[in-house]
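Q: A reviewer asked whether we had any structural model of the full assembly, not just the individual parts. We don't, so I'm hoping you can provide one. Inputs are below.
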Amino acid sequence: MMKSTIRNRLILLCSCLLVLMAAVAAVCSLSLERLKRDAHEAIAVGARLHSIAIEIQVHNLKAQRRIKEYLAEVDKLGPEKARQMYLEESDFEIHEMETLAAKAAAISPDAGKRAKFARIGQGLASYRQAVDRAVGLATDDIETSRRAEAQERYALAADQLDQEAEDGEVAGSEASQSAEAGMVRTSRVGSLLSVGISVIGLAAGIYMSFMLLRSILGPVDHLRELADTASRGNFQLEVRRFSNDEIGDLSESFSRMLASVRFFQSKTEMLNEQLKAENLRMSAELDVTRRLQQMMLPRETEMSAIASLDISGYMRPAAEVGGDYYDVVSKDGGVFFGIGDVTGHGLESGVIGIILQTAVRTLLASGHFDNMEFFNILNRVICESGRRMNCDRILTFSLLHYQDGIVKISGQHEEIIVVRGNGVIERHDTLDLGFPLGLEEDISRFVSETTVPLEDGDVMVAYTDGITEAIDRAGSAYGVERLAEAVRNSCGRPSDAIRKAVLESLGAHVGEQDLLDDVSLLVIKSAGSTQIMKG
Amino acid sequence: MKTITGESFEVRTEEGRNVVFFKGALRLSGSEDYAPILEMLKGTLSEPVATVLVDLRDLDFLNSSGITMLSRFVIEARDRTGIDLHFVVSEAIPWHLRSLKNLQRLMPALKIRLN
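A: Here is a predicted structure for the entire assembly that you could use as a starting point for your response.
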C-alpha cells in the first residue's frame, strides 16, 4: 500500500478535486447543450408555424383575387372558360392552404396551437363550401339578391380564414418567442450552475487544504516547541510521532538526534568531572611540590652568616614546577654549593630534587669529598630512586667547593660564569666534569674537577637552563651571553643587586611570555669589597 | 611512513629505511610525553639491521627530557649487538654538539656526521 506521505496526500487531494470538477462540468455542459438544441428546435418550429400562417394568408389572398376575377368575368367569358382561367388556380390555392394547415397542425408543439391550425383546416372546409356556392350561383339564372348573399357569405368565410391564419401567425410568433425566452432562461441557469460548481469546488478545495494543513501544522508545532525546549538545554524530551509521513520521519530523526545529544552530554559531563578531579589532583600535587622546593631552600640567615662570601640565591618554579635545586652548605671553613636540574616536571621531578639534596647533604656530612666516590654514590641513589618511583628522570648536577679564594668545580651541569672585578667574563663549561645522574650505573670514569680562583670583587654565577632557555615572543632564547652581560653590567654591586639586575634583564627579554621551566640563580661574590660596602 | 607531530615539531620515520627525521622545536614536558617518539626510535632497532640513522639537522631545540629520551635510545642501541648508529647533526645548532658528547660517552661506537 502506498505510504500516506504529505506529497501523496497533496497529489490525491488535487486529483480528487480535478476529477470532481471535470465530472460536474461535463454533466452540466452536456445537459445545457441538449436544452439549447431543444430550444433552437422550438424556435425553428415557431418560425415555421409563423411562416405557414403567412403563406396561408397569401394563398387566401391569391384565391380571393381569382374568385373575384371569375365572378367579374364569368358572364363575359362564359362559365367554362372562366372556370378554366380562374377557378382551377383558386382550387390549387385552397388545396395548398389545406396542405399547409395540416402540416402546421402536425408540427405544432402544443394542443392549443394544434387546435388553432385544426380550426384553419375546418375553416377551409366551410370556405370551400362558400366558394362552391358563390361559384354555383354565379352562373345560374337566379335572383340577384341570392347571388349577392352567396358572394357575401364567401367573403365572410375568406375573412374568417384570414383571421384564423392571422391567429396562426401570432401563435407561431408566440411559440418562437417563448422558445427564445426558454433559451435565455436555460443559459442563465447554465451560468448559475457553473458559478455554483466553481463555488462548491472552491469550498471543497479550501476544506481539504485546511484539513491537510491542520494535519501538518499540529506535528510541526509540537516539534518546534520541543526544539525550543532543547535549545534551552533540556534534552529530556519525549517526541511524539503523529503520522506516518515526512513529518513522522522528521520526528523520528529529531528523537534520534536528542538521544545522541543526551549521550554526548552525559559523556562530556563525565569527562568534565574526570578532568576536574584530575586538575584538582594535579594542582594539589604542584602545590605540594612547590612548597617542598621552597621549604628546602637555604635561608637568607644561613647565607649571610658566611663571612667570606656575599651570596644571593633565587628560585622561581614554573607553572608546572620543574626539578630545580640549589643548596649552600658551610663546612669546615669552606662553603659547598650544589646546583642541579631534574628533567621533566611535577611531583616526581620535585621529589627527585629533594632526594638529590638529601643525598648531597648526607654525603657532605659524612665527609665524602672524594669526587669520584661522591658522584658515584649520588648517581646510584638517583638511579635506584628513579627505578623505585618508576619514573624516567635524570639530572645534571655540579658541586662547587669554595675554600680560601679557590673554587673547585665538578659534575656536569650548565656553564659556570665568572665575571672578574675588571669586567672580564670567563665561562667554565662543566660538560667534561661529569655525566648526567640517573642514566648509567657507573659514571666514575667521566667525573673530574676544575679549579677556578675567586678573588675579591669577582662574581661567580650558577644557574639552571630555565634562564638560558627562556624564550621571547619570537622564540629566541635568553642565552648565556645575555646572562653574562647582565652580570658584568652589575658586577660592582652586592650579590642581591646583581641577582635583581639579572632577573630584570631576563624579564625584559621574556616579556609577557610564561616561563616554561623553573628559574634558579645563585650569585656568589668574593666578600672583600662587598664587606666594605656592607660596613 | 609514520609521523608524530605536535604544535612545533615533527618526527618522521621512513618504512624500510631505518631513518628517523626530527624537525622543529621539541618541548614536551616529560618522559611520558616522549614515550611515543622513543617507541618510534626503538622501532628502528626491531629488525636485525646494520645501520640506523637519526637526522637532527632540522631540530632547533630539544629540552632536557628530550635529551633523556635520546640517551635511553642510545643505551638501547648500544646494548644490542650489530647496530651501527649514526646521528646527523648541524654545527650551527649549539645544543647538538653539547648533547652528543654525552651520547657518545654512552655509546663510543656512535657515529656523528656533521652537516
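A: Points you may want to mention in the reply: Chain A touches chain B at residues 320, 341, 343-346, 348-349, 391-394, 396, 412, 431, 435-436, 439-440, 446, 465, 469, 475, 477, 516-517 (CB under 8 Å). Chain A has two domains: 6-209, 297-534.
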